[in-house]
Amino acid sequence: MYGTHRQSMNETDISAPLSVEGSKATQKWLRGQWRLARHSIVLAAGLGVLGGVLLIPQAWLLAHAVNAVVLEHAELAQILPWLWPLPAIFVARFAITYASARVATRAAIIVKEDVRGRLVRHLQALGPTYLHTRHSGELAVTVVEGVEALEPYYSRYLPQMALVSLMPLALLVFVFPQDWWSGLVLLVSAPLIPLFMVLIGGRAEQLNQRQWRKFARMGAHFLDALQGLTTLKLFNASRREAQLIARISEDYRISTMAVLRVAFLSALVLEFFATVSIALVAVLIGFRLLHGEMGFQAGFLVLLLAPEFYLPLRTLGTHYHARMEAIGAAEQIVEILNTPFPARASGHARPSLANAPEIHFADVHYAYAPGREALRGADFVLGMRRVTALVGPSGAGKSSVFNVLLGFIQPQRGRVLIDGHDLTRLDPDHWLRHVAWVPQRPHVFEGSILDNIRMSDASIGIEAVRAAARAAHADEFIEGLPRDYHTMLGEHGQNLSGGQVQRLSLARAFLKDAPLVLMDEATASLDPETEALVTQAIARLAKARTVLIIAHRLRTVRGAERIVVLDNGRVVGQGTHEALMFEGGRYARMVGAHDVLPPLVQRLL
Amino acid sequence: MLNDLRIIGRLLRLARRYRAWMALGALISTVTMLANVGLMAVAGWFIAAMAVAGTAGALMNYFLPSALIRSFAIVRTGGRYLERLVTHEATFRLLSELRVWFYQSIEPLAPARLKHTRGSDLLGRIQADVDTLHHAYLRVLVPVLVAMAGTTVVTIALSLYDVSLGWLVLAFLLLAGVVIPFAMRRMGERPGSALVEAWTDMRAAVVDGVQGMSELRVYGAASRQAQRIDDISVGVGVAHGRLSGLSGISEGAVGLCASFAMWGTIVIAVTLVTRGTLQPPDLPMLALLVLASFEAVGPLPLAFQKLGETFAAARRLFELVDAEPEIAGRQTPSPHPRDTSIAMSGVRLRYESRGSWTLDGLDLHLAAGTRTAIVGPTGAGKSSILGLLLRFWEYQEGEILLGGHDLRSYQPEDVRNLIAVVSQDTHLFNTTILENLRLAVPDADEQSIVRAAQAAQIHDFIVALPDGYNTYVGEAGVRLSGGQARRVAIARALLKDAPILLLDEPTEDLDPQTERAVLDAIDRLMAGRSVLLITHRLAALEDRVDEVLVLESGRIVERGSPGELRRAGGRYAHCQDYLLERSSDAEPTSSPFNGGTGDA
What is the pTM of this model? Predict the structure, then answer.
């Protein structure tokens, strides 16, 4: 139950009431997953029942031995026949407990691996546009801890459910012939326990699910604060942040305890009923023994078995929290798994494309949301074997052009033609094999430099990687690192400067050697010398490729053979730098307005 | 590496304030456990005595045993509830404090000592690792106290009947409560730490997979990343399987010990009954008492098995808490700066104790109220100067004077109060624009916020948003464009209103129009302040600075006004020529800067 302080996500109001249907659907999903590990769960439950049933001969032998001593004044030698088989039963029950635990965990492991795999792949299929709407910290919590929280549901709760429905029945069948009074007490009291638990459990469940959301939000807040620690420090605000962290933690503790108090209360009710029933059985037996209405052996046997009758129910009570926890975690998992994929290219065409395709944007429209139009009829051609620069103010639609070409978004109107093939008809994976991309802020993955450049594709040898790194002028700094290409980056390794990361990303692009190269101001964080070298390398690369560069600076633009000027989602000019300057349109204004450029450069414009 | 005993000691010290709570919890728990033992024992004796009385036709006082059964039942049921409330309340209060404690401990480490620690890693520590510590208190500390008290009471009680009974049960209790737990601890250590490691790897792989998804997809590596997560997941499963096998043994072993102890008790008790030293109804009583007494040690094997996980989490916390901050806080009050001048002489800095010097004898003087630019190639050490001035990094040699006093004589916070920074990687927090601005001055009124935003040329954009200043900026400001985010950062720096301004590549990554808007904003920001501008391309800001310093390999190699430098025909001028060459499509034959390796 301590997983109440594990996780989950989403931006909805924590105090919002949870829909009953949603919770029902989640439970259905949870139950549905058991099929994956059906055999193991059934086996675990079977072993559990076997271990429980062995209690009957154990109690029977004990009752015989004790009865013989207490009432018949038997000596040790006389009761040995009853005592000797007991150790064998003890050992057998031990072996069964062990086997059952292993089998049940295996079941949970199978389910977890499957769910996690599906979750990761579903997130990948949802793609980058979806991810922009979520906190990566929260998603990580769902995939790691959220899936982990499913474990006890399959390894404990489900097998225990089976045990609860079978064990008490088996014991009742045995107890009734021994003493029907006791049988009656057990029979009547047993259904009361789950009844009360469900009544209390409903409330706990609701609290618990809120708790998961709180946990996830706490995580998102912490991650934000920790990643911005340096900025907090710049403003001497990190002490103030400590107060905020204290407040969030306190709030979290208070709600954790609220959940636990309900959980403890349900345990209290359970214990109370079990204890009262056992006491009642003991008293009933005691008085009938006193009045000689029943034999001690039967009485003692029933007294030994009575606690075992409630034990599966009591254990279920503790696992009930495992169930609630799993539901809380599953809610987030199901939410992600049920998120429909954005409109995606579903084409299957896999034409062989030229090694430098011509790309035609024909009247392309795209709006991220109604009223948030990014492209409004963009129309231009990227010539083969050319470097085209895409310029325009922020929000002009430059990134959306990239997103369309990368297949992250689909044109809502108009078409993108690749050598005459409609992009939406192409198999997305097939198409992406023809694209290399250098983003503005490349991601550095945890792992070696080697794996960062070859993107963990072990089939690519180090020589090819080295050649790509040389082309991107990354080779020199890599060779200077402690373990050159095997230097670890990311969490457990070295951090690189902005310029180094940029060159690493360029090396990725060189290695991929794709017909279409998309670059988002690839030389932005480089010093002039490196920039010059890298620009040459890009020029070499472009000789046989189609290259599109989002340009923020004039220098990059001037290196391009062709310029496309975007404004407000439309093309407002295209041509060479000189031609555009001559035309004196948006581009000339943009450049002309740039009077902050050094006089030398200005003279050239 | 901390050894286990020291970790236990430190965990106990951390819980010092909750000593009384924990003791109370342990006391209630012990009483509850003993009530259960009593309940079982009296119930066993009661029905045996009733049966004996029934067959003998004798009278029997059943009031006392029934009263005992009733009260034991009540104590047991209520005690369990109370004990849980007390121990959990104490533990979760403690964990809540530990989160703050951890945050406060790592805050002085940023950024120098956290350079290699990712946000996701820190998150894992402050959230999951702190959570894991509940185990040490709830599952280990309190149960160990209960086991010690329970074992003592039960052993003494049995010894009163027969010494050999006492020894027998003590032996089995020690086996179940000491030998098996320690064996489990040893056996659980390796899979336990493997599990923690696998989780760390998985968290990193998942965060990578999410944040780097675009690249994974374009480079066809998405399925490999998914496969990698699958592989780690399998690793988690293997470690989990091993641990569950051990849990199976733990759970079964206590039961096995209890059964054998009861069996032995019956054997001994039967001979005692035969000898006449024990009443027959005492036999079932003792048998059930022994069986129930193993509840005292029951939780220990499982708890000890998970200690590996707990200690690993504690180690990860202590590892950072124990790290020496790069700059220690000062107790003495800061001197009063005479002005806002900065003077560095012979300053040397290196990041690794035997690495090469990043700053190698740096001399510079910034008179109060002047604007100075430092230019130089990537890796020349430009950003390091910033880190020094902000007291994020310590320098090894030389002297820095701020306002005429040694920089080290100030409290780091007082130094930072004098400085506002705009850099390309200023973090925007995932909250509203308003809250992000208020970071600079928590109690800033609306008027001054709007003034700052107007000066930063971002006010009009903000009020055009549907939620205005209450718009959420998204994780790390993703919902804003680069230029918008930069201007919010400038507004924040304006709001701070510090006399010294540090600009680190303030217009990097911006398109010309945005750059122009940002520069206008910077113009207003610079008014009346001492400014240090760091950049590798001065172009846009050239006529806004009084002096340019050219930094190369950690040293100033040239200084003067931009015009002087161009005329002098040195490196700076060369750099300008190079621009010219590029513009006329001539390839540069030599380079003005020898590219450094890596900007730390």
Answer: 0.76
